[in-house]
Amino acid sequence: MDNCIFCKIANHEIPGKIIYEDDKCIAFLDLSQATDGHTLVIPKQHFDHFLDVDQDTLKHLICVSQDVAKKLLVKMNAKGMNVITNMNEVAGQSVKHFHIHLIPRYQENEGFNPQYTDRSELVNLDTIYQQIHED
Question: Exactly one of 60, 97, 99, 101 is catalytic; which is it?
Fold first, then answer.
């Protein structure tokens, strides 16, 4: 896509702090840096989101993400890692090019909080289960 910023980084049309690259994908430091070392892993080929990516590419991206995450843990002395992908704007996707966030964690309450609210008393799991399985 002509105006996709991630495609431009992948094609080296604009600079990025690249920490890994191969023929299928690239990993670079996110400009926003939710925590130090926050890295994005993207396919070089443009896919809008998770459901658009072919399975071979997706498998490769997961393996690369795992390798990069291990490196970040060691090199950045992190104690944990959030591995996140968002799909569509309603879920927080701000760039419409599939990407995996690797967010090193150093301590609790460091300003980035992807925790979920317990809604167990507000939902009926049987109803949701039936909705998913109905034809």
Answer: 99
